[in-house]
Amino acid sequence: MTTAKSGGQRRPWYAVLYVQVLVAIAIGVLIGRFFPKAGIALKPLGDGFVALIRMMIAPVIFCVVVQGIASMSDLKKVGKVGIKALIYFEVVSTLALIVGIVVAVILHPGAGLNIDPATLDPKAAAVYVGRAKESGIIPFLLGFIPRTFVDALAGGEVPQVLLISILTGFAIARMGEFGARALHAIEVANKVVFGIIRIIVRAAPLGAFGGMAFTVASYGMASLSNLLKLIGTFYLTSLIFVVVILGAIAYGAGFSIFRFIAYIKDELLIVLGTSSSETVLPDMMRKLEGLGASPAVVGLVFPTGYVFNTDGTNIYLTLSALFLAQATNTHLTLSQIVGILLFALIASKGGSGVTGTGFVTLAAILAAVPAIPVQALALLVGIEKFMSECRALTNVVGNGVATIVVSRWQGELDATKMREVLTHPVEMA
């Protein structure tokens, strides 16, 4: 679904998915700006596309992870891949949190607002604060366990689907000849699932159109002028993180971050229109396999990154926490800032690409650091949609880079193929 050629002939520009999505986003912005009632009425288009993709997330993860584990002859190898991925996730996630703190300290995006927390409406963020009370390391770990095996697939919660997928994969791998037949069935199901995804993704322009029209109509920029500095700072920080930190990691792994971003531009535009990284999970996995990464490693690392490696969300958490402290003239000591960093490192786990998850996690951090008034969250409600888009974009790029790096560490990356594909991208069927 990238640009380029199929069968030696260049496709018409209007038939290329990323062009269709880009045009749809532009039209959606215009509709939302000049015809706000129509823009709000178009919300079901965006919701419908996200729902269609989300409908397929559980079967995609289940089939891919089970196939990846069951096809590995050496089960110790699965453990090695998992350990390498978790080490990478923790290091890069910590860097993202630190970047958010450093930028907030240097640029002071909240300075000068002089907000009196008593004047804010605590009801505006009450729903998020209520959900945040349920967060913490113990609820997070228990959240991996579904009520029943089928309930995990029906509910579609990424951590729960990962758990049953890993258990199923190990069980099949230990069954010998019977396991081989079961693996073949999973492979067939996998092809069917991705066939459905290819059909659904053609509706991406409609989803992006509806999502952007509603966003602009509902959160017009004129009412957000006093928070534009935070939005700009967050986007700039995320860009620096992707170009500098992820760029350096990519360079060390033998590829250019800019070529990689160009390679996944279709998916990034879909994320921009829907504000959710979940919408591109299936296609990103296909794209990563197309780069020469091992399907088994892709199946393990990329979905797991949605739980343990949310770089964009991590930047948002520390940057926004310090922004609210600055906006309300709350002085934070070094120990309190370190406390925010440590708590965010734990609380950020489980942000599986769902819109609004980052906001809930931020509420949990403020509840754990009482120096910052929790009602200050009301300041961010109006710009949550814009922040969510940037979080999702950064998360997708970060998990893509992580998957390639772990594949290279594992010695299961076709570097020659990766360089060829990034230099001369081709249409994926």
Describe the protein's topology.
Layout lengths: L4 E2 L2 E2 L6 H18 L1 H6 L1 H28 L4 H33 L18 H7 L4 H6 L6 H7 L2 H16 L2 H25 L3 H15 L9 H25 L4 H7 L1 H10 L6 H10 L4 H14 L2 H17 L6 H14 L9 H12 L15 H26 L5 H9 L6
Antiparallel strand pairs: 1-2
Helix pairs in contact: 1-10, 1-13, 3-8, 3-9, 3-10, 3-15, 4-11, 4-15, 4-16, 4-17, 4-19, 5-18, 10-13, 11-16, 11-19, 13-19, 14-15, 14-19, 15-19, 16-17, 16-18, 16-19, 17-18
Can you offer a commentary on this structure?
The protein is mainly alpha-helical. The protein has a single domain (5-423), classed as Proton glutamate symport protein (Orthogonal Bundle), CATH 1.10.3860. The protein is built from 20 helices and 2 strands. It has a two-stranded antiparallel sheet with strand order 1-2.
